[in-house]
């Protein structure tokens, strides 16, 4: 439970870093490669979030099985401490928020599609709706269709109609409806993120600006005609979350300003791609490396067979062995309640045989014997692992059993 919440918080922090980096680099990317390069730079967000789920390499674990017993004069009923309720409460709140945002987005999309009315095919490959809830638009995911309103021919000239259809085809060719779906999923998962609403608005605006640039680049002489078509169509209807609308009044001025100031890109297309890929991979590598301190995946293996695994033998010739392992102190609270339990530790052993980082892989009952186990493990010494005759760092997985016996407690 806590691992899920921790991962969600870590992803939220890196999402904020990615959004701030994109906001800071946007003027430079716009000057170097235009609106299309700025839009492609948003790839760093999904790359970053996917990278956070990649596993980290871990040191090979050998097993040691000391049985650590504590004395007790009597045996009391075992009463396991109650787990704190706040992780469950946070998880329920997050799930309700995610489901609520998903339901709102689905309802808005369905309302828009129902409001289109009857669709009939047109000779140019588009579809004409009987109503106009915010058209023209590219609607659908698996087979997206360009849908125009009933007054499309009356509102726009033939040249303007061709530019509008070319704009929507560019959305379809570049998979923008799927990008909008990914944005909806992101907004559902991170509904609590304070920067995500701004990032979503900026992403959709960059998407439209990039599509405008792709449409007008082959026809620079038609910029005025393109701007006139934008001015004729001001969207006053609610937008659908996963549709690509031609009309978007909130950014009308920005789109027309881009047409007026549009210049040839300073960077070639391939150079811009390399720049975006480098930025995405660089940020993802830093985020992936930062996971080292929170990776708590337990490793299940049979103690007798683990040393014979091919992967372990390829790393070290001789695994680390325990040397001096003083037992931990039995926690007083557990002793008073007559609790027994088991803790599995991951102990990093350096090349000198000293204990380094100690982490709890699992514990039963949770949290009762963790502190005592870690405090004792930090004082242990070991025979270091060896590779090619030289001492090397490695790690041990050490299960410890805490149990009561019939003798009196140690003074």
UniProtKB/TrEMBL annotation:
Keywords: Cell inner membrane, Cell membrane, Membrane, Protein transport, Signal-anchor, Transmembrane, Transmembrane helix, Transport. Residues 315-411 form the TonB C-terminal domain. Pfam families: Peptidase_M56, TonB_C. It is a single-pass membrane protein. It comes from the Bacteria. SUPFAM superfamilies: TolA/TonB C-terminal domain (SSF74653). Its main location: membrane. It is found in: Cell inner membrane; Membrane. Signal peptide: none annotated. The chain crosses the membrane at residues 12-38, 50-74, 86-106, 267-289. InterPro entries: Beta-lactam_resp_regulator (IPR052173), Peptidase_M56 (IPR008756), TonB (IPR003538), TonB/TolA_C (IPR006260), TonB_C (IPR037682). Interacts with outer membrane receptor proteins that carry out high-affinity binding and energy dependent uptake into the periplasmic space of specific substrates. It could act to transduce energy from the cytoplasmic membrane to specific energy-requiring processes in the outer membrane, resulting in the release into the periplasm of ligands bound by these outer membrane proteins. PANTHER family: POSSIBLE SENSOR-TRANSDUCER PROTEIN BLAR, SLR0241 PROTEIN. Belongs to the TonB family. This is Protein TonB.
């Amino acid at each position: 439970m806590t691992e899920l919440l921790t991962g969600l918080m870590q992803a939220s922090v890196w999402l904020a870093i990615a959004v701030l980096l994109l906001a800071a680099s946007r003027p430079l990317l716009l000057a170097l490669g235009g609106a299309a390069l700025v839009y492609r730079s948003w790839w760093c967000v999904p790359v970053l979030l996917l990278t956070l789920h990649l596993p980290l390499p871990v040191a090979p674990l050998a097993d040691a099985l000391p049985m650590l017993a504590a004395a007790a004069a009597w045996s009391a009923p075992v009463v396991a401490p109650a787990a704190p309720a706040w992780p469950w409460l946070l998880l329920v709140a997050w799930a309700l928020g995610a489901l609520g945002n998903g339901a709102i987005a689905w309802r808005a999309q369905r309302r828009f599609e129902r409001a289109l009315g009857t669709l009939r095919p047109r000779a140019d490959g588009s579809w004409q709706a009987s109503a106009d809830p915010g058209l023209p638009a590219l609607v659908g995911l698996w087979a997206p269709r360009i849908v125009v309103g009933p007054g499309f021919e009356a509102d726009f000239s033939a040249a303007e109609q061709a530019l509008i259809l070319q704009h929507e085809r560019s959305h379809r060719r570049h998979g923008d409806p799927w990008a909008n779906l990914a944005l909806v999923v992101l907004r559902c998962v991170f509904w609590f993120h304070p920067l995500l609403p701004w990032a979503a608005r900026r992403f959709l605006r960059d998407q439209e600006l990039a599509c405008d640039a792709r449409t007008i680049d082959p026809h620079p002489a038609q910029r005025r005609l393109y701007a006139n078509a934008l001015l004729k169509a001001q969207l006053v209807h609610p937008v659908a979350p996963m549709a690509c609308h031609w009309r978007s009044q909130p950014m009308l001025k920005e789109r027309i300003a881009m047409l007026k100031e549009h210049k040839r890109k300073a960077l070639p297309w391939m150079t811009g791609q390399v720049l975006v890929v480098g930025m995405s991979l660089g940020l993802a590598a830093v985020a992936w490396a930062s996971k080292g301190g929170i990776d708590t995946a337990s490793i299940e293996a049979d103690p007798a067979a683990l040393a014979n695994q091919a992967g372990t033998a390829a790393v070290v010739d001789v695994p680390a062995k325990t040397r001096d392992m003083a037992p931990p102190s039995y926690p007083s609270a557990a002793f008073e309640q007559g609790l027994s339990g088991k803790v599995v530790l991951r102990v990093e052993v350096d090349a000198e045989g000293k204990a380094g980082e100690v982490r709890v892989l699992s514990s039963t009952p949770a949290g009762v014997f963790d502190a005592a186990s870690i405090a004792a493990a930090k004082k242990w010494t070991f025979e270091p692992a060896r590779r090619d005759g030289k001492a090397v760092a490695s790690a041990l997985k050490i299960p410890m059993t805490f149990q009561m016996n019939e003798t009196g407690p140690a003074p």
